[in-house]
Structures are given as C-alpha cells and as structure tokens.
Amino acid sequence: MSFQVHGKDLLGRIGTIKTKSGVFATPHMFPVLDPHHRILRREFFDRVGIHAVMTNAYLLKRGRQGLDPVDIHETLDYPGTVATDSGAYQILEYGHVGVAPEEIVGYQEKINTDIGVILDVPTGFRSDPSRARWTVDETVRRADRALEMITRRDILWVGPVQGGVHLKEVERSAREMAERDFAIYALGSPTELMETQRYEVLVDMIVAAKKALPKGKPFHLFGAGHPVLFPFLVALGCDLFDSAAYALYARAGRYLTPEGTQVLGDMVEFVCTCPACVGSSPEEFMLSQEKEGETRLVQHNLWTCFSELRRIREAIRKGRLWELLELRSQAHPALKECFNRITHYAEILERSTPDYAEILERSTPAVKPHGIFYLGPSSDSRPEKLRFVSRLPGSVGERRNIVLVLPGRWRRPFHEDPRYESVAKAFDDHPKVSICFYSLTWGPVPIELDETFPIAQTEGPDTGDPIVLRGRAKTVSEFLQTLHPKGVILVSDGLFGRAVKAELSKRFTKRGLTVLNGELLNPDAIVKSVERKLVRNA
Ligand SMILES: [Zn+2]
C-alpha cells in the first residue's frame, strides 16, 4: 500500500491511500453499508466522490450462514475500495460474538476485502482500569495471532488501539501496536464519548494514541461520522473515519449540517444546495412515498459529510485549519470545549505545523503562503502565534539605550503605516534607538520581526475589549522591561495606546518614560520631540 501525504496543517494532513481496488483521498469517512439492505447505488458514490466504503464482516458472515463466501465487491455492487470491520463493536454491544478471532481474519481474506480489521476487544466506556488493561493485553495477543495467520499481504490490515478513557492504557496500547507491522492504526471505543459530547476526553485519547504511533501511517478513528467533529478530529491527526450515522440519523428524520443536527420536522426550508435538497423542501421529504424522503435524507447527509471533508482539505491547503476550528467552535458550547482542549495541546500542534517562513524561503517568489486571521484571544494558542512568542526574546539584534514604541496599526508591515512611516524611518538606523511596535494581534513587535511571516500577512482587529487591551498592553510592557533600556519613548495612539501607557507607567519610572500623543502631534513634531529627548539623554 502507499500512503502519501500532500499537505499538512496543525496535525491534520491531506493524503492518498492506494489499495488493490483503487485510490482515495484522505481525510476520508468510510460510509458503513448494511450488506443486506442497500439504499444507495454505485453511481451515487461516484457522484459524491466517495471512493471507499465499509461494511461489517461479522454481520455479513452471520447473515450468510452455510453459504460460501462471495467477493465483497460483488455483494455490495461496489468496485472501489471496501474496508471491513471485524465485529468488535458488536462484542462491545452484546458482550460476545460466536466467532473466533482467527475465523474473522480468514473470512475477510476470502471475501477479498481491501482493508481488514483484526478482531480486537473494545475497552468501552465504562471499563475500570483492570478491565481496560485486560482488553489492551488481549487485543495485543489477538494481533499477534492474526499477524501469524494472515496470508494475504495485498490487504491493508488495521491494528486497533484500545484503552478507553484510561489514557495510560491508550498510550501503552498504541506503543504495543506500533511495534507490530500494520498498514493502518485505529483508535477504538470513542462512540459513547461522541454521543454524550465528552469531546475533551476524546481529544485526550486521540493525543495519547497519536503520540506513540508511527507518523507515516494513516490513523483511523472508529465510529466518527458527524461532520461537526471532522475539523477537530482532522486537526488532531485523524485521517480516516467510518460511520453509519448518515443512515441512522436519516431513519430518525435527522438532517446533518456542519454546525449540528436539525430535525426535519422543525425545518421550513433547506439551506443546503446539494442535489438531494435543491428544489425540494423538508415537508416534501416527509410526505414522500416509499421511503423516498429517507433515501434523499441519507443522500443529503452524505453530501454534507463529504463537502465538509473537502472544506477541511481546502483549509489545510491554505494553512487555515485553525480558522475553521475557531469558526466551528462557535456552533455549540461542547465544541467550544473541544476547541479549548485542543489549545491545551498547542505546543504539540506547533511542533507539527509547517513553518511558513521555511516554506517561503524554499518557494519561488511567485508562490506566496496565505496569511492568517487573528480572531481574538482564542487565536493566541495557534502555532504561528506561539512560534512568534518563542522568537521574541532573541529578536532585538542590538540593544540600544532608548526604545521608541510606535503603534502597530492596520497597515502592515507596521513601519510602512503612512502616519508613522517618517518617524520609523528617522530612527531606524539611529545608534541609540531600538524601535518596537505594539500590536493588538501580536503584542510587542520589534522592527526586526516586522516583515517576517506571518506578522505582515495577518488580518486582525484593531480594537478590543478592555480586558484584552490590558492583557496585551501588559505583554508589551513586560517585553520592553527585558530589554533593560535607559529610557522608553511611547507614541500613544487610540485606546490600545492608552492601555500601553498605563502598563508602562507601572514598570518604568517617570524619568525613564516619555509619552507622546500620536493623535495630537504630527509626524514631524514627534520626530523633533524624540530628537530633543535623545539630546537630553546624551
Ligand atoms: Zn442537502
């Protein structure tokens, strides 16, 4: 098999997986099909761009007792990639199944699956630590037995990671599985966490598993099928999902959107313009005969899932996955919590996010990376911001006696702001003066960093609420203190300028701090005042 990565942002990646039946793009959700109840035709999958599906080998085997195994592509009338699940989820639900682990591997080979899963033991949601430990150990034993008896190497085998909500066990399980050669690694048992919206635990589990698994292999999260979670899961490094939710939700009259679930009966109009919805209405869906409405709802739900996956891939290409997380985190408090939990791992994300400065250096001048949007304090944990903060201490090349602190406003790079351009120019090469801008997005920006990515490419608001202003002003003041200047000359402009003034007054003496009102003085007057101050200081 080959898994090729074509683009990255945060821990998310765009890739392609090649199986013996075809190629498909990741991130991908395998729609789980009921082998005994086909609702959708092959043409529909082609139209949506679905090139890999999944079905349950155990349910198939049970439904065909006494009959010879048949090629799964024939059974499903689907020539593309078919993944099969082993039935582990049924173990979780019913306690046990009447099939040996060896049998289910052999059966998946006989039906010519493209991606197969060994029969693991899901830890589940309510297992205590000792039960969790046992499920991890037993899954490892079964993995070893499966690897011994696998004869078909043209099938991509999935190694499941267990451990449930017990993070140490998840990590141990991932370490054990990583030592075994699987084409794909997967994390089990998250379904209940998603149903009860305990997303922060889910985030912890994914991070615990990802830490210990080989980075070059695809990572599958079992049972994730709601588009609201896709951006968050992809940002954490999930490449694959599988779910029957699109069909189960449709049966219950539930309409999936990237912001959440709607009930068909509560809707008057469709906002979606997918081929299933366009020109129709929720009422028409509900009144239709012979399950036609349900089928169209199934189709809509799949269109929605795949449109969201395409949106995510586009966001990765543009380096804007973080912006998508911020946007989606506004849709529900539970998603906001999920987002907050992800920011908890911001340093891990920072280490994995490509450095755009490097990309810029490597690219021809015609290829420019995209800027980013700064949307407020929630953007402070994004990798680009953390990277900037970490560069700050060593950024001021030569420390001079006086720091001239200028407003960093809407115009970037800041030294080209028409209002303060002549002031910056007058002192840029002055032997005694260092220049530092104060920006609501970045805090202190020494002129040395003014033109580096993504400072000059970032769109951010120029105003903020008093708490944000104060907090940001404090970071400016703290940074200036680390430079140990003899004097600070602040050109105050706007509300933020006044906040910086207030914070500087706390850290610098009256003699050490000069404040010039940028709103009243013209640039020439500012230059003259600074020059006078320098003469007096000399
Ligand atoms: Zn639709």
Characterization of the model:
By secondary structure, the chain is an alpha/beta fold. It folds into four domains: 28-243, TIM Barrel (Alpha-Beta Barrel), CATH 3.20.20.105; 253-319, no CATH class; 336-386, no CATH class; 398-537, Uracil-DNA glycosylase-like (Rossmann fold, 3-Layer(aba) Sandwich), CATH 3.40.50. Helix content is 43%, strand content 17%. The protein is built from 22 helices and 18 strands. The strands form four sheets. It has an eight-stranded parallel barrel with strand order 4-5-6-7-8-9-10-11, surrounded by six helices. It has a five-stranded mixed β-sheet with strand order 16-15-14-17-18, with helices on both faces. A three-stranded antiparallel β-sheet has the order 1-2-3. The radius of gyration is 29 Å and the shape is elongated. The chain starts with a strand and ends with a helix. Mean pLDDT is 91; it is low at 363-367. Zinc ion (ZN) binds next to helix 13.
| Span between termini | 71 Å
What helical percentage do the residues reach? Answer: 40-55%
Any low-confidence stretches, pLDDT <50, length ≥5? Answer: 363-367
Rounded radius of gyration (Å):
29 Å
Count of DSSP-assigned helices: 22
Sheet with the most strands: spatial strand order: 4-5-6-7-8-9-10-11
Q: Which fold name corresponds to the CATH topology of the largest domain?
A: TIM Barrel
Ligand kinds: zinc ion
Q: What's the multimeric state?
A: single chain
Based on secondary structure, the structural category is alpha/beta
The CATH architecture of the largest domain: Alpha-Beta Barrel
